[in-house]
Amino acid sequence: MTVEYDIGVLSFDNQIEIEGAGNRSFSDAGDSGSLIVDDQMLAAALLFAGGDHGGSNGKGLTYANPIAAVVRPLNVKLA
Question: In terms of C-beta distances under 8 Å and separation of at least 24 residues, what long-range contacts does 63-67 make, across chains too?
Fold first, then answer.
């Protein structure tokens, strides 16, 4: 996937793409860094980008780093 920033277009691999349900977007401005949990309230991913274009409902797409890719380099464990 690619994301456009002020410094240019950057490419990211192995990310999770999320779209909102119904008439809502999944994320909003200022949500970067938020923890995304699964249906059992376990850490699933860390939100890093979102936009208001795309997705099947036209409300935008959100991108997140899988939580394992976040905690592994930091050498931490989630309880």
Answer: 63/1, 63/3, 63/12, 63/15, 63/16, 63/17, 63/18, 64/15, 64/16, 64/18, 64/36, 65/15, 65/16, 66/14, 66/15, 66/16, 67/43
